[in-house]
Please model this.
Amino acid sequence: MAIKKGLFKSSVGRKNLMAITGLFIIFFLVIHLIGNLILVIPESFFPIEFWGGVENVHDMYNAYSHFLVSFWPVTIVAWVLYAAILIHAIDALLITLQNNKSRGEKYQVTDTSTSTWYSRNMGILGTIIGIFIIIHMAQFWLKYKVLGTEHDLYDLVFATFKIWWIVLIYEIGILALGFHLVHGIVSAHQSLGIYPKKIMNIIKYIALCFSLVMAILYAIIPIILYFK
Ligand code: HEM
Model:
């Protein structure tokens, strides 16, 4: 028990917890992206024969969102996700405080020539993403899942992205997410020590490509809906 307590109190334990929660959040982000890409499927490509009763993108998106709230295993995964986001944010704060404290005690210099600006500003990027998630959940999750004041999620999302400054907020949030992901994925693999150091360069390349694709696909959704 003492070992377990120590594991997550130590800096290594905290970094492992950040890595595990971060990788779980990434898993959610991939599923969330696939679900929301339904919004931008051109009506002409819509496979009506395949989907039977569902006749258009509007119905398909609402059927997908209804499934999310009515299928209980998804509800359990959603609660694990909320916990993971909170733990990830609190842990990040504790690691930052701990680092600042030890920086005050010992001398520690950050070498800016060997690190990227986004790896040195993960806290700021994380804060921007945190603010974005609060705004985002207040717009959709709260109204649809919690208060139940909105029943047609497609109409709600569509109307939301008709406002240019909301689209802008999304683009800023997604840009921050992209940079946060690049460093986060590499850092998580380093913390967990899953792969030998030799292939870390490959991991860095994969992280960069993955983050780029995720950011581009997320970013096009509000823009396409704005002009649709
Ligand atoms: C730009 C494209 C996006 C669209 C159209 C979108 C849409 C939605 C909608 C409609 C919901 C409420 C229904 C549901 O739970 O699925 C939702 C929930 C959520 N979104 Fe997004 N989202 C987008 C991007 C993002 C991004 C970039 C993040 C994270 C940084 C994010 C994080 C979340 C979270 C944490 C929830 C609550 C999840 C749940 O309760 O299951 N979303 N989103």
Remarks:
- The pocket of protoporphyrin IX containing FE is lined by residues 32, 36, 65, 68, 78, 129, 133, 136-137, 140-141, 144-145, 153, 157, 170, 174, 177, 218, 221-222 (CB under 6 Å).
- The chain has one domain: 11-227.
- The mean pLDDT is 88.
- The radius of gyration is 20 Å.
